[in-house]
Specification:
With 546 residues, this protein is mainly beta. Helix content is 13%, strand content 33%. The protein has seven helices and 37 strands. It has a six-stranded mixed beta sheet, with helices on both faces. The chain starts with a helix and ends with a helix. Mean pLDDT is 78; it is low at 1-16, 388-407, 425-443, 479-487 and 542-546.
């Protein structure tokens, strides 16, 4: 059990005796060494010392178990330094822990007064203050279930009252022998569509992902079972998760000092706790491990990749939801808003209903082998094109004419050599050049002035645009004075001009278009290729028309 045992098991000083009642009235006290026991004998309240220290705390623990399990501590921030501590009900209708000098070390708060305030330890583990014999929970003046420590008990409302602002959350002990508040908290976050979040200070350590009608999608192991029932409530006044044991099961949720949240059930046969759920479970539960749009799969050596089914849903603090929409309406709303990045069904029962939208980055997606959920992620047109043609070379070259299989192979070899040489050239630095108008390089490359190119393309008219590649735009021009016969050329404007001039000009093959010339004008650098009207090599290889 490791850290779990250190958290739950503490060594108690020997009690002198127990009070055979579960409550105390006004001005009555529970002294160090005395205890209250709930009516069914499930829970006990009294002073204890963790790890045989001299520090004394008022707490509640499970009585029937052989393993001493503390579930709530009153004066966790200020201990009693000796055995003089007492618990009493004050005439203001509150509970107070005092030391031997009558200094109040801890007290409950209450906005209502009572004529006959009484403190009672219920068999659920809830310590309550009520007025006389009024057992209506709605009328309790105060209850420990509203102020949990590191343990969530059955029947607790883990979440918020949206009217009063009361926030019921777990805070870890600082260490196994110090119940003061540590670094970790676990709470229901109401931002966007609610989800459970484990915090270390102000950093998110883990999140449960949103409720989908059956479970929090980050807990695929969470399903109807014979040990306990659970529910998630969201309405005008309340926002909380709760669970109830079935058939006498003892269930706890504990937040440990080093961060893991563990759901436990007691096994009589082994006389020990069984961990049936925990978070974080593995590296993929580390919030945002794979970055924006990343998805984590712990079963792969490379855990992070994009996938959109069988997943834990992304971070929902910047989300929007609607319960009455169907999936088609949800899709339409997402498409109509350019800020919407993804959508999914809010409730997966009976074919699915409701709408959950994300705006902004998608963070902390995780893949599951079972009980994952579908999410529809909005992609840009270029991303969709790249995804559907991932095997296609993204750089489109202006190469046209009849293409044989030998030419395709030759072209592939050329492209590979070109890319390798270009990378080496980049490492060496920028290549110098001093070409001037009218000059030819290697006796083959003609240079053209900018005015000539501009006139021939009708000032780079859209109607003369053939397309664009990885380096720039491509235009067609008509030149009547270049050769005896009129001819059409293709002009390419791009930034890595020098490398292409060097390598392409020297390449000659019957299945490759010929580089005829170039133009340099200030920052403009252009290539002029032979134009051939029978579409491009691209269309023969991939069935596409440039």
């Amino acid at each position: 059990m490791g850290a779990l045992t250190l958290t739950l098991v503490v060594v108690f000083s020997i009690f002198r005796f127990s009070i055979a009642v579960d409550n105390i009235a006004l001005n009555q006290v529970v002294r160090d060494g005395e205890t209250l026991i709930s009516a069914g004998g499930s829970f006990e309240l009294g002073f204890f010392s963790p790890d045989n220290s001299s520090r004394r705390y008022l707490g509640i623990w499970l009585k029937k178990l052989s393993t001493m399990t503390i579930v709530w501590v009153a004066n966790k921030e200020i201990p009693v330094t000796d055995s003089s501590g007492i618990l009493k009900v004050t005439d203001q209708g509150t509970l107070a822990v005092l030391n031997g000098n009558d200094t109040i070390l801890w007290s409950s708060n209450s906005t209502r007064s009572a004529r006959n305030p009484t403190a009672q330890l219920l068999d659920s583990g809830n310590l309550v203050i009520k007025d006389g014999n009024d057992d209506n929970p709605e009328n309790f003046l105060w209850q420990s279930f509203d102020y949990p420590c590191n343990t969530l008990l059955a029947g607790m409302k883990f979440g918020r009252n949206t009217v009063t602002g009361l926030d019921r959350y777990l805070s870890a002990w600082k260490s196994s022998d110090d119940p003061s508040e540590g670094d970790f908290t676990y709470r229901l976050d109401p931002s966007g569509y609610p989800q459970l979040i484990l915090w270390k200070g102000s950093a998110v350590r883990f999140r449960s992902a949103p409720w989908n009608g059956v479970r929090f999608s980050g807990f695929p192991e969470m399903s109807p079972n014979p040990a306990y029932t659970y529910d998630f409530v969201i309405n005008e006044t309340d926002l909380y998760y709760s669970f109830e044991p079935v058939g006498g099961s003892i269930i706890l949720v504990v937040l440990n000092p080093d961060g893991p949240m563990q759901a436990l059930n007691w096994i009589d046969r082994t006389n020990d706790w069984n961990i049936y759920s925990s978070a974080p479970k593995d590296d993929c539960d580390s919030n945002g491990l794979c970055g924006v749009h990343g998805s984590c799969n712990i079963n792969r050596s490379s855990k992070c990749f994009v996938k959109f089914s069988g997943v834990k849903l992304p971070e929902t603090r910047k989300s929007w939801f609607n319960r009455s929409m169907d999936v088609k309406e949800c899709e339409a709303v997402c498409l109509s808003n350019c800020s919407c990045t993804a959508y999914t069904k809010l409730d997966i029962r009976d074919g699915g209903s409701g709408c959950l939208l994300w705006f902004g980055d998608l963070i902390d997606i995780k893949e599951f082998n079972e009980n994952g959920q579908e999410i529809y992620v909005r992609m840009t047109a270029s991303e969709l094109e790249n995804d559907s043609s991932s095997k296609r070379n993204k750089r489109k070259w202006v190469i046209v004419g009849s293409v044989s299989s030998t030419g395709i192979i030759l072209l592939s070899l050329f492209l590979t050599m070109y890319l390798l040489k270009t990378r080496r050239q980049r490492k060496k630095g920028t290549m110098a050049y001093n070409l001037e108008v009218g000059q030819k390089e290697d006796g083959q490359l003609q240079l053209f002035d900018f005015a000539t190119v501009s006139r021939a393309t009708d000032n780079f008219s859209f109607h003369n645009k053939l397309g664009e590649g990885g380096f720039g735009l491509v235009y067609k021009w008509y030149v009547a004075r270049w050769t005896r016969n009129s001819s059409e050329e293709a002009v390419k404007r791009f930034t890595e001009f020098k490398n292409e001039v060097t390598y392409i000009a020297k390449l000659q093959h019957r299945n490759l278009v010929r580089l005829l010339g170039c133009c340099i004008h200030d920052e403009e650098k252009m290539l002029i290729y032979e134009y051939m009207p029978n579409k491009s090599l691209d269309s023969f290889i991939f069935g596409l028309i440039l």
